[in-house]
Model the fold of this input.
Amino acid sequence: MVGRGGKHAKTSGRGGKGQTARAGNKRRPELRDIIKKLPKNRGYSFKSKKKPFVVGADKIAKGEKFSEIRKRLGIKGRKIVIK
Done:
């Protein structure tokens, strides 16, 4: 009987010569190289990023909490800045 590899081992009877047998074998997927060559969108910013809600100091009662301000003005999920 001649050694030709097993049925379900690492090389499965196909051998392991060439590029795959060398140390540091890291073959990159072809699609990744295509994606890397595409230019990045300059000046791209997320649309979901919201600007802070500016509230004048005259519209806020003294000692009022941010949660109370949110309820009164109907602000959801935005940062409040007091000026």
